[in-house]
Amino acid sequence: MKLSSSACSIARIPSLFASLCRPICSTSLSLSPSSLKPTTPLFLRPPTFSTSLSELNKWHHWAKNLASSVGSSFVHLDNGPDSTLLCRELRWLLEDSLEDHSLISQLGSQNYHMDVRLRASLDELYVLWRQRIEERRPFQYIVGCEHWRDLVLSVQEGVLIPRPETELIVDLVKDVVLDSRELKEGLWADLGTGSGAIAIGIGRILWSQGRVIATDLSPVAVAVATYNVLRYDLKDMIEVRKGSWFEPLKDVEGKLAGVVSNPPYIPSDDISRLQAEVGQHEPRLALDGGVSGMDDLLHLSNGAVSMLKPGGFFVFETNGEKQCQFLVDYMENNNPGKFCNVNIVSDFAGIQRFVTGFINDKCH
Amino acid sequence: MSSLILKRSFNRSLLLSQNPCTETLLVPSLFSSLSELQVKSLHSSGLRNFPSLDQNYKFLLSGFSSFLLKTVERPSRSHFRVSKRYLSSRWRERYRVLTSRICALQRNNSAFSSVLPSSVTLPCESNKDQLHSRRFRMFSTKAAVELSTSHGLTVDRIVANNWTILDESESDWKSHAAAISQSIQVIKKRLQWKKLKLRLDLLSAELNKPDLWGDPVHAGKISREHGSLMAKMKQVTAFEQELLEHIDMIKLAREEDDTELESESLNALLRMRRNSKEKELQALLAGEQDSCSCYMEVQAGAGGTESMDWAKMVMQMYKLWAQRQGYKVTVVDEMPGEIAGIKRATIKVDGEYAFGYAKAEVGVHRLVRISPFDSAKRRHTSFAAVAVIPILGDGSTHVQINESDLRIERFRAGGAGGQHVNTTESAVRIVHIPTGITATCQNERSQHMNKASAMAVLQSRLDRLEMARQAQMNAQHTHSLTEISWGNQIRTYVLHPYRMVKDLRTNYEVSDPDTVLGGAIDGFILSYLSASVDKDEDYQ
To answer: Of B1-10, B435-444, B506-515, which one has max mean pLDDT?
Structure first.
């Protein structure tokens, strides 16, 4: 209830956004906020469409057959979804489109003339599911949201869909924040925030004095992240700034308690071989990390030294074992003595995914 | 003030309760005066009158005390209603008649008590509370007093009289009374009355130990169990008491030729009779965890697609059953078969008494039919196993899980992960390394939520394991262990060559498998629950 009511405030975003940013970062705002209005996720749209249960049933039957026809062909093609997964997505699409979820169990029953209230027209549902299967448009863009941790974040084309692996960054922050009042009440930065996922995740575990600045180069990302921050009522805690990496953070140099980032880390040559949902639909800006995939990670690790205050904490997500090892070596060789407790942390699939560590207290 | 004084005299009577009651002749006169006093206090609130009255009756109270004591021991919610009406209305006159009559029959305690405590406690709420707490304490040490009417009629005697039980619509008090009495016996049997009383005595003794709270965890457990058993017992006793009171009323009304009172009491009996069936049912679900929500798990037996399809049918049967019951059903984990059906699945059934009912389904379910997956149209027998795990409430003690004992894995993970992959598959599996117990959840839309759900399943599984371990140490509870452990074949569903569902434990059978598979399993559940509880003949 709370979420949907705050979602209504979407119209107010531009003005709120402007006032939020002005006092701190008047220079970094090249974006004219009014030009970008984020799309409302399907599940938050009003149920203004209606159809009969039999029509919906027909659509569902069609959609299910379409999903089943995929079999495991996408899996073989590019490790895409199989029909089991697509059928589950279909159920979620229904959940998000229907006003009354209990109807899902009644699909296929005899009560055919019953009126059904929908958040999208039946025609649109046909188009959406065709896009899902035939164009491989990501499910999260279809429904306009991604369930991530305990959040439901708005996403749309132009914004990277937050990955399940990245949820762990918040857990890693939670672990260090538990022991340290300074970190709990400090200023954090989420660089390349995209939908704002990590920033919001962290914003919800910090104490009320804590602050997060989320930056992104993409105007779409800035608009969507702002929308999500408002939806979770965190506008007093999280500030979204437009700009590349540390650029919009010059005013807080050396003051950050923590820096987190899931920067683009896929080597440029791999982009063309990506799963269709990723390669053909998600923003290249958020994926392509240069020839080795390490361009931005190296930039971030260099910047962290001057941006973080002594005892400050960082987490960076990487492409896997190779990048993790490389980054750890790089930090030790390029900035000897600056970092301490540098660690590699694996994701739940057992892949070395994150590099974490602190800025050494003594070196400053 | 008035209540204070009354309380004082009341307390004194308790203090003096050791004295033998020999002055029986005094009682009637005392009682009628006392009741007059109460009536006065209600209507005139004659404060100044009390001290002297209190003095005057001091000596009388000593001889009177044993009745008072018994009075106090009795749960008496129902009398408040009855007596209040008497006191506050035109029934006052009758009240005096009734009380004196009862006092004349002083050997009978219950009818006597039905009037007295209310008259003592009515004037003030706080006094009533005091009475309640006192009664509670007394009750805990001395629970067993056989209740009877003024004519010495008890529930057992009513049943022994073998009065004909007529249809509800017949206005015959004996028929109602006999039906209610039978129910009370069934309820007592189901609650294992005798064991319940022994257990209560044991707990009371434990509670009275001065060093009890040295171990607060243990003390909390004891006092919680005591409280819950006490509540169960009080409910039944109150019901019994109410029955006997109404019988008394009817007899009185007949003697007084008061048709209004008679029909009122008769109606009350009818209400009780209708209520009693529900109470019988409630008594079936008196186990410690019965009121909990639960997880239900179905696993396909050997036999490939045919048995996986059967497992799915069984799971569907439970989903429909739970929905009918008004429970909230969530799929926690589902492992689909390659061609059809499920290899296994877990659902969460949320609602009061979900575990109490669902536990009757634990075991192996057998299906006989012509398999739709067999091109040769042969008859197949398949099996599906059902497990049910209670979800313990916040009040219960859970097994402590160390984070370091867990291994959390991404389920069905493959490839590079991270930004390379966009998948809505975010299932996790949690392995509890010391026990090897695992839990998986893949139904939630985020990995975080899947992990949380899987943790909840893991917690319940570990709790169940711990309960089983404790039950093994405690021979008294081995009975409940067999109830919740993975049982043997319990039910057969035959779709061909004939149609029938039969429970092998109770021989309960139904000739329409479709409705059963559509969730109509209440008959099976209730017959099993009654059979498993009612087999213990010795109830008192």
So the answer is: B506-515
Q: Report the DSSP pairing between strands B489-494 and B363-370.
A: parallel
Instruction: Give ipTM to 2 decimals.
Output: 0.86
Give chain B's mean pLDDT: 74
Residue B207 · residue B222 · CB < 8 Å: yes
> CA B521, B523, B529: angle at the middle one, nearest 5?
105
Q: Given pLDDT bands bounded at 50, 70 and 90, which one contains residue B131?
A: very low
pLDDT band at residue B150 under the 50/70/90 scheme? confident
- Residue to test with chain B: of A163, A265, A294, A318, most B Cβ within 10 A: A163
pLDDT bin (cut points 50, 70, 90) of residue B396 is low
- Going from the N-terminus, what domains does chain B have, and what CATH number goes with each? 1-131 (no CATH), 143-284 (1.20.58.410), 291-540 (3.30.70.1660)
Is the CB of B424 less than 8 angstroms away from the CB of A150? no
Q: How many residue pairs from chains A and B have C-beta atoms closer than 8 A?
A: 101
Q: How far is the CA of B486 from the CAs of B51, B388, B468, in angstroms?
A: 69, 9, 12
Q: How far is CA A11 from CA A7, A14, A22, A43, B360, in A?
A: 9, 7, 19, 18, 55
Interface membership of B330 toward A (CB under 8 Å)? no
Q: What is the pLDDT of residues B370-395, one digit of tens each?
A: 999 988 999 999 999 998 988 987 66
Pick the CATH number of A2-38+154-359 from 3.40.50.150, 3.10.180.10, 3.30.450.20, 3.90.226.10: 3.40.50.150
Dump pLDDT digits (tens) for A286-304: 999 999 999 999 999 999 9
Tokens of A223: 């608009």
Using CA coordinates, name the residue in chain A closest to B451.
Answer: A149
B392, B457 Cβ separation under 8 angstroms: no
Token pair belonging to B444: 């939630």
Mean pLDDT rounded to a whole number for chain A: 88
Q: Are strands B342-350 and B328-336 parallel, antiparallel or unpaired?
A: antiparallel
Test A139 with B424 for CB contact under 8 angstroms.
Answer: yes
Every domain range in chain A assigned CATH 3.40.50.150: 2-38+154-359
Cα–Cα distance measured from residue A142 to residue A163, given in angstroms and rounded to the nearest whole number: 16
CA distance B331 to B468: 26
A31-40, A124-133, A239-248, A277-286: the lowest-pLDDT one: A31-40
d(CA B406, CA B427): 16
- Contact flag B413-A81 (C-beta cutoff 8 Å): no
% of chain A exceeding 70 in pLDDT = 88
Q: Does B46 touch chain A (CB under 8 A)?
A: no
> CB-based contact (8 Å) between B447 and chain A?
yes
Report DSSP state, residue A288.
B
| Pairwise pLDDT comparison (A135 vs B131), residue with the higher score | A135
Q: Which chain A residues are within 8 Å of B416, Cβ to Cβ?
A: 319-320, 351
User: How much is the average pLDDT of A94-121?
Assistant: 84
Containing A117, the helix (H) or strand (E) segment is strand A115-118
Residue A239 to residues A8, A12, A146, A260, B15: CA-CA distances in angstroms?
20, 16, 21, 15, 73
CB of A259 closer than 8 Å to CB of A45: no
A129 three-class SS: helix
pTM of the model: 0.67
Nearest to B418 among A146, A282, A319 (CB): A319
Largest CA distance in chain A: 74
The nearest CA of chain A is from the CA of B415 a distance in Å of: 8
Sort out which chain B residues have CB atoms less than 8 A from A84's CB and list them. Answer: 336
